[in-house]
Design a protein that fits this description.
By secondary structure, this protein is mostly beta strands. The chain contains one helix and four strands, in the order βββαβ. The protein is 11% helix and 36% strand. Strands 1-2-4-3 form a four-stranded mixed beta sheet. It is elongated and about 40 Å long.
Length: 85
Amino acid sequence: MSNIKIVEAWLDIKSYSSVAKLYVKSWSPDQHSTTPIILLHDSLGSVELWRDFPERLAEITGRQIIAYDRLGFGQSSPPSRLLGY
């Protein structure tokens, strides 16, 4: 693959009355356009299930790719309370 910069971060977000950690990963080519592509995982997915797709997508499109784990999935914090529907 070409020169793709990969960054992992945990963002503090407010989840009801507490603070949770949201795992975010981005893939950026050296020269990228201003509009990123954001990947949303389905159901029980996580960033890791994308495998090499985000890096390949960044390389092909020349855009920054951002993916995150929803609360309770992957490397993000569990939700502070159960959701009721």
